[in-house]
Specification:
Four Helix Bundle (Hemerythrin (Met), subunit A), binds 5-S-methyl-1-O-phosphono-5-thio-D-ribulose, 323 residues, seven-stranded mixed beta sheet, Rossmann fold, four-stranded mixed beta sheet
Length: 323
């Protein structure tokens, strides 16, 4: 199985502790949230990120209303708005709807535990697909989920099965989730890896070092169009040009059947200064105009398969949610 020992979300009665992912890998710093409001701010500010982890944190944030005395409906609304693209956020709040308030902590814990099981199943389903060099973007590991990870979880499962795989991690400008988080997780768990800048992906493919690309997702439309970290679309185009398979690791909780196509997926615009600065240091004229979408949409036609906890899916997706 080869789960990671990293546990970035810890919930106790009345207290949610989030490993501050903005400080990694330099420092292990924890942020304490005692209300839904504080949790929503932590999600918006990227203390916790990654679609499944955002969903788990939001569920715990709502559970905090048991102790904080916040109005449950406005707390839920506030959490829903904390980040727009990942469908998991709204989906996990939907799952808590209608439960008595005092049942929320147990339900949120169950959701968290379930996510780990989903990722382990997803990893087992996808592992046989991988061999050799595996190019990925952003962070899709234990830090982004309830444990193990999705795309990086497939890598973990492949290694646990004895397969020789080597991760090529794109640094993922502007937030550097690849450099700061994926390389950190790989280093912690002894996963062979190489870091490269986003602009090196095409040259890497041309060099023959990678045999496939696998990425995570924030929302997959019913037709398979997939929103994921900015840069994913370019990778898919490059993979097609080089004849490489392009896989999306998709917990079925990230499939939004109500969303017909990628055009309907909301794309989050992040603050300009995330792009203008690295580590607080200005890297361009202070007022240069910036375009900083956090995600892009990859058309389904560029995707070879979606790896889910229920097996490897190709289009059309099974219509029975339990399939
Ligand atoms: O902005 P982030 O760091 O939340 O973006 C994360 C991603 O794009 C991941 O690929 C996606 O959420 C899947 S995480 C298992």
């Amino acid at each position: 199985m080869n789960e990671s020992s990293l546990q970035p979300i810890i919930f106790e009665d009345g207290l949610l502790r989030l490993l501050d992912q903005r400080a990694l890998p330099g420092a292990l710093h924890w942020i304490a949230c005692r209300s839904a409001e504080q949790t929503a701010t932590a999600i918006t500010d990227m203390v916790v990120r990654g679609a499944p982890a955002i969903g788990i944190a939001a569920a715990y944030g709502l559970a905090l209303t048991v102790w904080s005395g916040e109005d449950r409906d406005s707390a839920e609304r506030r959490l829903r708005l904390s980040r727009p693209t990942a469908v998991n956020l709204g989906a996990s709040l939907d799952r808590l709807r209608g439960l008595p308030t005092d049942a929320l902590p147990t339900a949120a814990r169950a959701l968290h535990a379930e996510d780990l099981q989903i990722n382990l199943a997803l990893g087992a389903a996808g592992a046989p697909l991988l061999s050799g060099g595996v190019l990925t973007v952003c962070n899709t590991g234990a830090l982004a989920t309830g444990g193990h990870g999705t795309a990086l979880g497939v890598v973990r499962s492949a290694r646990a099965a004895g397969q020789a795989v080597h991760v090529y991690a794109l640094e993922t400008r502007p937030y550097l989730q690849g450099a700061r988080l994926t390389a950190f997780e790989c280093a912690q768990d002894g996963i062979p890896h190489t870091l490269l800048t986003d602009g090196m992906a095409g040259a890497l493919m041309a060099s023959g070092r990678v045999q496939q690309v696998i990425v995570g997702c924030d929302r997959v439309a019913a037709n398979g169009d997939t929103a994921n970290k900015i840069g994913t679309y370019g990778l898919a185009v490059l993979a097609r040009a080089h004849g490489l398979p392009f896989y999306v690791a998709m917990p079925t909780s990230t499939l939004d059947r109500a969303c017909p196509s990628g055009e309907a997926i909301p794309i989050e615009a992040r603050p300009d200064d995330e792009l203008r600065r690295i580590g607080g240091q200005l890297i361009c004229p202070a007022h240069s105009p910036v375009w900083n979408p956090s995600f892009d949409r990859t058309p389904a036609g560029l995707i070879t398969a979606w790896v889910t906890e229920r097996g490897v899916w190709r289009l059309p997706f099974p219509s029975d949610p339990a399939a």
